């Protein structure tokens, strides 16, 4: 079963066509990577998928529910991390986690249990009382992920979750995402890194708001007779779309 | 999740952030402290003795008696005597005197003959309130003297047929603090609560946390309710502290019921936080929120009746003042604190403020939900 089914999605901002006839399907328990240059419409598609923006045209099914008619039910089952990280700088790591646990309806003791298990999973235990604004980008990224995963959502929508991280931190994040996918969680993320795209079960390439390529990396390489994913993009795409 | 629980979860987070935010603490503690000291101790609306320069070209007993009447009134203090109109003008240009009294050389003769005797009064128009008070006081002195002369001529016993015995009620010593501080509390509370909630929402919008919380079961209505609750509660504590300071530090007596002041405070905080939410739904940056708050603050100071009576304003401005919550709250505070008014007396202002609160709250919530969505 597919966790995400977006069909013929279009979105305009005034004269700018941000998305044009985008269709994508992501099976449950897989990691889907969305690539594309800056301004290609990746973040817009992500915001539309989590219901923060409305598409002008097209239909979207998330976790088997229609996004336009069951927006809030869908939203409560999504974990979303934006590029800005969207965590409270002036609260400690523990306070951020506890707030989001309570925001998802957990009572005090249940919230504390969730905070403990999630902080363990993301190795945040030693920084629980640090004020978030004083942490490095890498730790803030982990905290943002922890806040998004706290309520055990079956779908994670992550906007460049490894941007600005050192190689070790990136690797740790990817190990975590893979273990979540193994548990059945679907991960939809945007990235600029081709090596990350190779780790995905499925990838899509957005150029000027259009989905130019979509499929499993191995299939895309085999179809063009390429040995590396990099060649798929450089040989298989028009120059203006790269 | 119920709206109440969503609001409480959100409000608890707001309190935690508020306690760590230096700007909010300075705004909540520093600004009222500064304003209270300024208005409570430094600013005095009652005009002291007006400095006067006298050009007495007559010099005889009648004119000297007139000058003594000016000094004895307690309204004027003669700072200089000059011998020409030009010299009198120069003293007024220098700012040493705000009033010039010019008595012509024919004054005593005319007065003794019972004929019309005129005295010129020059007034410094650059200080409008002083000018108005000087004219009133000078006319009163002249009228009193004229009446005495008239009575002396016709009756001879010197008793005036009519005497006004004024008695100032509620604030017998016309203490400015008693008039200013109750009004200042309303102005400060609106400024602080409106700015705090507007900045808090816009900051979350800039950081992206607003959208993050929107995805949780708290939702947009929970966010709005939590913010209104948190900053309303902060305003309530602030208001109570200001009232205590007013009573015990500035010694402003409360003639009415103290128990009436808390419900009135709560009633006033509703439109204040609603205006903050309304501003937050328009502003995309914190600086923009600050500018919009000042746009509300200035009319509140000038048109609410806090400094100038609403009835003395042009009709258009009076209409504008009816849409400002401080207009009703300042009036209510003065009624209860200074005049000792009870519920029945203030009912019409309470109803008007309640209606305005409901309209502002509904508009703010609707606008906020629409703008963020």
Could you describe the largest sheet of chain B, including whether it forms a barrel?
4 strands, mixed
Are there runs of chain A of 5+ residues with pLDDT below 50, and where?
none
Which bin fits the share of residues in helices of chain A? 25-40%
Largest interface: A-B, 25 and 23 residues
Strand arrangement in the largest pleated sheet of chain A: 6-7-8-3-9-10
CATH architecture of the largest domain in chain A: 3-Layer(aba) Sandwich
**How widely separated are the two ends of chain B?**
20 Å
- How much strand content do the residues of chain B show? 5-15%
CATH superfamily of the largest domain in chain A: P-loop containing nucleotide triphosphate hydrolases
**Helix content range of the residues of chain B, please?**
55-70%
| Alpha plus pi helix count of chain A | 9
- Helix/strand-derived class of chain B? alpha/beta
Dominant shape of chain B? elongated
Cα-atom Rg of chain B, whole angstroms?
Answer: 28 Å
Shape of chain A: globular
| CATH topology-level fold name of the largest domain in chain A | Rossmann fold
Structural class of chain A: alpha/beta
Distance between the termini of chain A: 32 Å
Oligomeric state of this protein? heterodimer
């Amino acid at each position: 079963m597919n966790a995400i089914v977006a069909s013929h999605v279009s979105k305009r901002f005034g004269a700018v066509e941000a998305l044009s006839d985008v269709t994508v399907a992501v099976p449950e328990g897989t990691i889907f990577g969305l690539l594309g240059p800056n301004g290609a419409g990746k973040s817009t598609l992500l915001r539309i998928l989590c219901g923060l923006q409305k598409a002008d045209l097209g239909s979207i099914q998330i976790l088997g529910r229609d996004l336009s008619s069951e927006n809030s039910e869908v939203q409560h089952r999504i974990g979303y991390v934006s590029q800005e990280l969207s965590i409270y700088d002036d609260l400690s790591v523990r306070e951020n986690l506890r707030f989001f646990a309570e925001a998802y309806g957990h009572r005090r003791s249940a919230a504390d249990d969730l905070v403990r298990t999630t902080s363990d999973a993301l190795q945040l235990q030693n920084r629980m009382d640090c004020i978030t604004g004083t942490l490095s980008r890498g730790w803030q990224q982990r905290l943002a992920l922890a806040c998004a995963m706290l309520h055990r959502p079956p779908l994670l929508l992550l906007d460049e979750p490894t941007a600005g991280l050192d190689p070790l931190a990136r690797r740790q994040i990817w190990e975590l995402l893979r273990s979540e996918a193994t548990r059945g969680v679907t991960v939809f993320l945007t990235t600029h890194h081709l090596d990350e795209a190779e780790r995905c079960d499925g990838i899509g390439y957005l150029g000027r708001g259009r989905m130019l390529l979509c499929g499993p990396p191995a299939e895309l390489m085999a179809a063009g007779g390429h040995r590396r994913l990099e060649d798929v993009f450089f040989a298989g795409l028009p120059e203006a779309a790269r | 999740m119920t709206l109440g629980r969503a609001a409480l979860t959100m409000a608890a987070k707001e309190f935690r952030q508020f306690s760590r935010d230096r700007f909010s603490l300075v705004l909540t503690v520093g600004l009222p402290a500064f304003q209270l000291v300024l208005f409570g101790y430094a600013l005095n609306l009652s005009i002291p003795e007006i400095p006067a320069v006298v050009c007495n070209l007559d010099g005889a007993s009648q004119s000297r008696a007139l000058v003594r009447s000016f000094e004895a009134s307690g309204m004027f203090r003669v700072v200089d005597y000059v011998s020409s109109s030009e010299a009198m003008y120069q003293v007024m240009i220098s700012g040493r005197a705000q009033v010039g009294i010019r008595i012509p050389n024919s004054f005593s003769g005319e007065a003794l003959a019972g004929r019309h005797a005129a005295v010129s009064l020059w007034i410094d128009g650059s200080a409008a309130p002083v000018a108005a008070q000087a004219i009133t006081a000078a006319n009163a002195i002249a009228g009193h003297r004229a009446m005495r002369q008239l009575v002396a001529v016709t009756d001879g016993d010197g008793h005036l047929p009519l005497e006004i015995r004024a008695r100032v009620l509620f604030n017998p010593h016309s203490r400015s603090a008693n008039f200013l501080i109750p009004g200042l509390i309303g102005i400060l509370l609106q400024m602080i609560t409106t700015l705090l909630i507007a900045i808090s929402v816009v900051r979350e919008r800039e950081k992206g946390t607003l959208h993050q919380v929107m995805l949780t079961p708290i939702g947009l209505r929970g966010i709005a309710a939590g913010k209104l609750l948190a900053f309303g509660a902060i305003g309530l504590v602030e208001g109570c502290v200001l009232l205590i300071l007013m009573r015990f530090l500035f010694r402003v007596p409360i003639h009415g019921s103290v128990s009436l002041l808390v419900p009135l405070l709560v009633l006033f905080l509703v439109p204040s936080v609603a205006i903050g939410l309304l501003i937050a739904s328009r502003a995309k940056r914190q600086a923009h929120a600050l500018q919009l708050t000042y746009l509300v603050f200035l009319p509140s100071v000038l048109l609410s009746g806090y400094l100038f009576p609403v009835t003395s304003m042009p009709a258009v401005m009076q209409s504008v003042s009816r849409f400002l919550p401080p207009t009703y709250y300042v009036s209510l505070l003065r009624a209860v604190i200074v005049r000792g008014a009870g519920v029945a007396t203030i009912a019409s202002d309470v109803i008007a403020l309640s209606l305005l609160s409901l309209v502002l709250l509904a508009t703010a919530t609707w606008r906020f939900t629409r703008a963020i969505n």
